[in-house]
Protein 1
Amino acid sequence: MCGIVGYVGSLRADDVVLEGLRRLEYRGYDSAGIAVVTEGTVASAKRAGKLVQLETALSESALPASGTGIGHTRWATHGAPNDRNAHPHLTRAQSIAVVHNGIIENFARLRAELEDADYEFQSETDTEVVAHLLDSVYDPATGLAEAMRVVCRRLDGAFTLVAIHADEPGVVVGARRNSPLVVGRGDNENFLGSDVSAFIGYTRKAIELGQDQVVELRTDSITVTNFDGTPAQITEYEVTWDAEAAEKGGYDYFMLKEIAEQPQAVADTLLGRINDDGLLVLDEMRLSDDDLRSVDKIVLIACGTAYHAGMIAKYAIEHWTRIPCEIELASEFRYRDPILTRDTLVIAISQSGETMDTLMALRHAREQGARVLAVCNVNGSTIPRESDAVVYTHAGPEIAVASTKAFLTQVVAVHLVALYLAQVRGTKWGEEIRHHVEQLAQMPSKIEELLTTMEPVREMAASMADAQTVLFIGRHVGYPVALEGALKVKELAYMHAEGFAAGELKHGPIALLEEGMPVVAIVPSPRGRSILHDKVISNIQEVRARGARMIVIAEEGDTDVEPYADVLIRIPAVPTLMQPILAVVPLQVFACALATAKGFDVDQPRNLAKSVTVE
Ligand code: M6R
């Protein structure tokens, strides 16, 4: 939610900031703006709409050259997405400009106080209070960083703030609480970004700001303090991917690139996790074997696509470890007073590591004494930092708003966690674990093979641009796949789509069916769990008998499904628990092609943002 960039150095700040905003636009695209310090004032430009609107405005009227600048790309919370509410927000004298990500919960009271002191507001945003508050406390003797510390101590809620002052050329100040902000250390230049992609074209040296910290950037120094002014410890790390990984690389959309990257992403998730004996090693598992042996309940928390990965985790963990496992939407978790003890292991799944609902749920779990294991993609982000242990998915940057490779790698990572628990607790023999791990190791080549067969799926999607509704059904781990397929269609093609447990259809939703309505069924393997397979075939028959158009996803060699499929999509045969890793791929391709056929921007679907950093 909202992308923030800051730069100080010898290059033109507006160019560097604009480039950073291009890379961060996936975080929000309601408006964009830039401000730079120049000759005793702050110059700015901002426009509602996607970044291209700002680029057009800047090409008509450029900002003055400056080496100090900030920028913002917005996902609107307070105030409509128009020019007035676009960031940066400036003081009336144009001495201070500020950009913000998050929500300042006490802004109404602060605004009333500032209005009483004759400050005039130009926007409806919560952010503007920060510009005026900075102005009200600014003292040239102590500077902008101290003003920021004073202001932050008065704010409630979640915020990343970045500001510049007309009297301090060569200084950019940032602050964070509950929202992300990363520093990039360059050579005689320094950067700020909501994530490292903002400056990855310039440096791979990064410093994650901690909770309640303020950073002052100059060309040759980075000074981090806590909100109370005490010096803060900083840990620098090297980003493991480069600028190319954050580019489209010849694809029309990031989503297409990320779908194609899935074999490699899954291989990277598995890399280094299997020792010479074929057993699992999870390096970042900071919980001891004794801790893991004492776990008597597991609770999975996540949102959206990550929640669907969590649903699959429940099946795998319970099957392999026999530990009772619950899965809950992170946004609901803490409000029902969940029963948590020291022996509860909470697994928080999040691609970004910044999702506020998940972060708040994990904090609640830790406050109640439970231990938290994060399954996360973004190195050093808040959720793994605040957890007791982490298993990184190593999927590389995921930029498209719709999650694809993050989902597959989350499913693989939770399988690893489940098998690791089984290994430590002895609920599976070493031989069995080796066997499952070997099957996971075959996934990259199977996904690769599957991706070469997707043309008919694209054609089918293109022919369905006028459909009103698509339903998805599945049982067991096919149920979360059905939910994920429906979510992709909703978020990308803006169509009514719903996923159902196949057996639940007859309890109500079957009334939705109309002649020709497309229904996608995910059919489990006929091998091993054949009752499950047969039950889904029965459900398909029930649906087909009511005139629906059946699109069936079934494994190679499953001939039983052939009489009931209007369209048959084949996936390689794998064990049932691992089937979601393949079955979801045609659904991603389908939703992407459907949205493209309808003329929508699949990377930046309306009303959405990649990282949801508000509750
Ligand atoms: O970064 P996270 O994995 O915590 O994000 C959770 C959801 O916001 C995310 O999966 C969302 O549902 C995706 N846009 C779905 O494609």
Protein 2
Amino acid sequence: MSDQPAASWIVLKFGGTSVSTRAHWDKIAAIARAWRERGKQVLIVVSALSGITDQLKVLTEAHADAPRRAIRDAIVARHESMFAEMQLADRAPLQYWLERLDALVANARAEAGGLPWQAEVLALGEQLSSTLGVTCLNRLNLAAQWLDAREHLHAQPLPNQNAWGRYLSASVPAAPDPVFAQALAARGGLFVTQGFMARNAQGETVILGRGGSDTSASYFGALLKAEKVEIWTDVAGMFSANPRQVPNARLLARLDYEEAQEIATTGAKVLHPRCINPVREARVPLAIRDTNFPELPGTEIGAVAPDAAPSVKAISSRGGITLISMESIGMWQQVGFLADVFEHFKRHGLSIDLVGTSETNVTVSLDPTENLVNSDVLSALCADLAKVCRVKVIAPCAAITLVGRGMRSMLHKLSGVLAEFGAQRVHLISQSSNNLNLTFVVDEVIAADLVPTLHDLLIRAEAMRVEDAAVFGPRWRDLYKKEQSARAESWWIARRAELLALAEARTPCYVYDLATVRARAQALRTISPVDRWFYAIKANAHPALLKEIATQGFGLECVSPGELERAVQVAPEATRLFTPNFAPRAEYAAARAGGVALTLDNLHPFERWGEDFSGHEIFLRLDLGAGRGHHDKVKTGAQSKFGLALDELDEFRRLAHRHGVRIAGLHAHLGSGILDAAHWKDVYVQLASLGEKIGSVRVLNIGGGLGVPARGDEISLDLAALGGALAEVKAAYPQFELWAEPGRYLVADAGVILARVTQTKRKGDTRYVGCDAGMNSLIRPALYEAYHEIVNLTRMYAAPAEPVQVVGPICESGDVLGNNRRLPPTCEGDVLLIAQAGAYGAAMASHYNLREPAGEVIL
Ligand code: PLP
């Protein structure tokens, strides 16, 4: 390779677990061989065998000979056994470093525990592992050479760096050195070197500190002006959230250096933030790959062109944050206040992370990964600060950060996310001056639950544009096959030809598939703890659907005289419930006369027209204090107009008693689009315990709200789990009949809209595809930021092109049916299919702009 005009280097870094077994070295050999076969020079940077650096660290801290010898023996045994496992023959190189370990342990300097001695001891881990590795590669017929990293990485002290930092957290100024790259290429094509170490100007060994081996790879990448640095580890790359917390987190296929730096700094552990700067300066691309799954694509970090539209790339969270709130004592805009307080942080060696200021208050955060924040340091700091201000410590907190380029231009998409924070105590909000992050500091206990919800909300709000396949890769749980999505293939794929023929006759139109409705109804009927099912006909009151659902044994839940009338016309035999909200007096009387079960959710009817209900049974709808659902506007608990507040229950009972009314049932419906089976168990338990207290209660109605996943990211509601959870409560409260009244679950997937493309347009960077269905046919995207899958039915199997906005013909900016959808190149006349439109679609349509909404067709 040495006679090539310019050396083309690939730097591969393997971490502790990736170098600790023979099988792993086989993989390393295969990866290196593949690059060699493509004509590349390869430099492999390795960490110590897993656990060895920790043992060496303990050795440096041991104060007696016996523990030092015990650790020495364990380290020797570990490397001997690795040597044997690798079936290596040439023992001399390993022997050299093991003797060096003995010499260092025996060295008189050990007693003093000096920093240069500590650095030499700590460096041994990588010196041993790289020695074993190079011997192993040679045995596998790869001509690898051992390279002493210290010969090429020259540390320079930072300004004000103390001795500890100079020896154990050193930095290397690494700029491309073409002479070195060429000279090394002349020596051979494959080298193995050590991460974590360098040499100082005095020729002593120094250590690079945390993230050291990744940083070494990055330094070598910069020095060699490598074609690429690959960090091989045990996870496929950076994700849009911590995948252990959020299994739906997406692999980030491509990031620019600054975004990657920000994600690493704000919580992602896969890469240490300090290893990004050297490759960024040298413009060397860096990739993260999984050693166990080399076929996975990984994350590519480089200088990428700005995205067409900004997107939140990740949500990360860091715990253990301490907030210090400092109130200036009655000195409005006091000159030098900031300088005074920051001086104290400097003196206590504390680096500040986030800052929030007002006229009289400064609040800062301290991140434990950058600081030694223990109670001694804090109390000393607070004692000093108390001389200049009033101090309050708020801990433990967590910093939740949204990362993405152009954060300030995304605020309008974050309303749902901000609303979620609104329900929590937020201590500090900080927006970074580089426009890359927005951070919220909250109590640490809530962070773990909050992050998955926020990740979901970011996707729903299309602030995290997961449709953009260039940036967002597969979900973690799909990559690692942790869980299989239970979603079945949609009916409209099989019936595409029929739908296209229908669209020839008319668009826009809703098309419903009765077989899907039937299947959903039958699936619900298998949930045996539910004694009676009702269908909330507001979701879709099309007569054919009502008839089908009633045939499956469902009663009908109605909220207006119009719905009651429709129910009687279509299914006179079906039991009807009337659950209105703020309805006029006459409606209750009419419903009661028609033999319908009435539900009240307010004191007013009893206070003003109690006599209307005398001698009758009613149901009481309660607000259990918290709303649930896919959007704020579908949450019907807490801050909504629905349900009787629990603190009014006693008064309601008193009035019921006064008017001779029997409370026969309790009801709660707290929101829509819920995918967590545990929700209804919670509702059931709460209603049951209240029902027991009231005495007259016979029935508990746990409402509807059963969700249907809108995106591939979401996991279907687990009906078996729901049945199991309800059965547990039923066993404890067998005296109550259990009712439920879903709407969306039965009909959402059964309906689609067919729309015809009217015009296409390009404005600035945005492309639009217009169609003849607008928000007057389907208002859910505008009203709830709801996601509906949209496909070009005409060109269903063509490759997708650039993302487009799918819009309708209504004179409203909000007339957008889908944001950033990757459709195939789409032309006037093509038929679009808008999926999951069976629930709250036609039912909410209007004649706005005097445009006819989509008609309805039953297949
Ligand atoms: N029950 C009541 C009282 C409701 O208000 C609603 C919806 O608004 C439902 C049931 C049905 O909800 P979903 O369609 O989400 O199942």
